[in-house]
TrEMBL record:
Family: Belongs to the SCO1/2 family.
Pfam families, alphabetized: SCO1-SenC
Protein name as catalogued: SCO family protein
Lineage: Bacteria, Pseudomonadati, Pseudomonadota, Alphaproteobacteria, Sphingomonadales
InterPro entries linked to this entry: SCO1/SenC (IPR003782), Thioredoxin-like_sf (IPR036249)
PANTHER family in the record: ELECTRON TRANSPORT PROTIN SCO1/SENC FAMILY MEMBER, LINALOOL DEHYDRATASE_ISOMERASE DOMAIN-CONTAINING PROTEIN
Length: 171
């Protein structure tokens, strides 16, 4: 893997408490968003936008597995992630792990996240983070990324275009 590659191998835990790796997500496209369950605005907005885009794809959405990887594993246990996702975004599979495991996958995807003091938060901190969604192909190789500025319709159009590309094409 070159230093510019995005993605890679990981060993995490899904929101049902089951160990998973990137190999468990091969065979379908994966649409990955990094965030955390205590996020007040960015994550709920992004998860809703991604869910709406998948709704717009209709049956084509079956080719995409949406994943939500935490940047705050200290608070985001499998149970917390399961409750968060099932109550608002049931299409997503949440992934968590040890701080070292999360930092490794964050680095592999070049995701920014840092802990900052927040006196308004019950635990006293917030986790500002980047807000890109990453599309991985069925072999879990990087295909594209999408900024948070795309609305659901434009995201659906971009995903539809990627799904239509031949498997060997990564342009």
């Amino acid at each position: 893997m070159t230093s510019t590659a995005i993605g890679g191998n990981f060993e995490l835990t899904d929101h049902f408490g089951k160990p998973v790796t990137q190999a468990d997500h091969e065979g379908r496209f994966a649409l990955i968003f990094f965030g955390f369950t205590h996020c007040k605005m960015v994550c709920p907005r992004a998860l809703t936008r991604i869910s709406e885009a998948l709704d717009l794809l209709g049956g084509q959405a079956e080719a995409i597995r949406p994943l939500y990887i935490t940047v705050d594993p200290e608070r985001d246990t499998p149970e917390v992630m399961r409750a968060f996702l099932e109550n608002g975004w049931p299409r997503f599979t949440g992934l968590t792990g040890s701080r070292a495991d999360i930092d490794e996958v964050r680095t592999a995807f070049k995701v920014f996240a840092t802990k900052v003091a927040d006196p308004d938060d019950p635990e006293g901190y917030d986790m500002p983070h980047s807000s890109l969604a990453y599309l991985m192909d069925p072999q879990f190789q990087y295909r594209a990324h999408y900024p948070d500025t795309l609305d659901a319709a434009r995201l659906a159009d971009a995903l539809r275009a990627e799904l239509a590309k031949p498997p060997e094409s990564t342009e």
